[in-house]
Fold this sequence. Notes:
Strands 1-3-2-5-4 form a 5-stranded mixed β-sheet. It is rod-shaped, with a radius of gyration of 23 Å. The mean pLDDT is 79. It has one domain. 15% of the residues lie in helices and 41% in strands. The longest helix has 13 residues. The protein starts with 10 loop residues before the first helix and ends with a strand. With 123 residues, the chain is mainly beta.
Amino acid sequence: MKIVRRVGLWAVPAILILGTALLSGCGEFYTNTIDPYSYRAETPADVQAAPSDPTVHNRACEYYLFYLFNWGDAGYAKVMSGLVKDKDHYMIYDPKFDQTYRSWLLGLYIRQCLTMTARVGHI
């Protein structure tokens, strides 16, 4: 004769609540990220745009591991830094931002990147 052990009624809601908390980000142990919020930029009409103005690219990323640890800087300030060496004589205008997500192993490791493409004009 087989003895069947039944799970108490408390187990099903407990498993659902615990699973929801872990998968919703409530179970994060470490978070140190900067996300994009807003940025005001000049358009070609605001500066002396020329067809010969060079195009610059930059990318900033943040990372997620096991839905528990987050780190990185994918904000506008990070992506804008380092684009132009002599910032006193040049201005960045007409920016285009793209946000990309790469996920591996069902989201256990995620890379979120903010990529910027802009033109550099003379002041």
